[in-house]
Design a protein that fits this description.
Layout (H helix, E strand, L loop, with lengths): L1 H30 L4 E11 L4 E3 L2 E3 L10 E8 L6 E7 H7 L5 E4 L12 E3 L16 E5 L2 E5 L5 E9 L6 E10 L3 H28 L89
Parallel strand pairs: 2-6
Antiparallel strand pairs: 1-11, 2-10, 3-10, 4-9, 4-11, 5-8, 5-10, 6-7
């Protein structure tokens, strides 16, 4: 039973260690020196003056939020037109774009939500975005422009515009997240999986190499070699020849005693051959037997 338990535990530990080791290798190789996940999210357009996100609600009470680096970037799809990208408090952004035609984006990169973007009408022309002072972070230029989202609690809006404040905004949106704990997490997976694998191999070897408990001897009939002694076993010297009661000096049981129950038949003893006697000669017909008295004698 103990041997079976060790083998089962060894196999279970090996099964658990395999995904941990494989996952650890993948995570550590992916993390490398720059544990950042990034990619293109989609494209957004506006016939107005700005592309504006819905309210971004950040809560600093979210565990480990300050350990994530969330970055959003845009790149102008209009050749030769620099782009402005920034974020600010919801109230300040709404006041700046009041009466200005712009597009409120509810989804980026999802075609099934594209018809849910809201075109906000207006007739006003906004002031150049780079001259505003309410932006918490901003960037302007050609190519991809990136800003890092804050970790402080608050409600914010992201805004993309042409740097000169003109109409027809057309940008591609990018996103990235940096996970500084990704590499240590992968190493921890590797170490845990390796320890489980070693423990599983040790338990498996112990279970396979351990000897099974001896089995109880099978029952043997009385009088057979190795079986219980016959009825003479209680006598002096008995037991040296099981089933016969013979002692170490070859003392047989008393004469006339029946053989013990279950004992094999006694071996036939050798008797010397007796010389055969020739038959007596027969008298010829008419002759009297030598031992028969003759008539004269009678």
């Amino acid at each position: 039973m103990k041997r079976t338990v060790l083998i089962v535990l060894g196999v279970v530990f090996l099964l658990f260690s395999a995904p941990l080791v494989v996952g650890g290798i993948l995570v550590t190789s992916f993390a490398g020196d720059d544990p950042t996940i990034e990619g293109r999210v989609g494209e957004v357009r506006s016939p107005g003056y700005a592309v504006v996100s819905e309210t971004v609600e950040l809560d600093s009470d979210v565990p480990f939020l300050d350990r994530f680096d969330l970055t959003v970037g845009v790149r102008s799809l209009r050749a030769g037109v620099p782009v402005f990208f920034g974020y600010g408090p919801v109230d300040s952004v709404d006041a700046y774009l009041e009466g200005v035609p712009h597009t409120l984006v509810r989804s980026v990169g999802r075609t099934d939500w594209a018809d849910q973007d809201v075109e906000v009408p207006g007739t006003a022309e906004p002031a150049p975005p780079g001259e505003q002072t309410f932006w918490l972070e901003r960037t302007t230029g050609s190519g991809q422009q990136e800003i890092k989202l804050p970790s402080e609690s608050g409600d914010y809006r992201l805004v993309a515009m042409n740097a000169d404040g003109s109409r027809d905004v057309d940008v591609a949106v990018y996103g990235s997240i940096t996970l500084p704990f990704l590499l240590p997490f992968g190493v921890a997976m590797l170490v845990t999986g390796g320890l489980l694998a070693v423990l599983g191999i040790v338990l498996l070897l112990i279970g396979l190499l351990s000897s099974s408990p001896p089995k109880p001897p099978a029952a043997v009939a009385a009088g057979t070699p190795g079986g219980p002694a016959g009825p003479m076993a209680g006598q002096v010297g008995a037991g040296a020849y099981p089933g016969y009661g013979y002692g170490p000096y070859g003392v047989p049981p008393p004469a006339g005693s029946p053989p013990p129950a279950g004992s094999p038949p006694p071996a036939a003893t050798w008797q010397p051959a007796q010389p055969s006697q020739p038959p007596a000669p027969q008298p010829p017909p008419g002759a009297s037997h030598p031992n028969t008295p003759s008539e004269e004698t009678r």
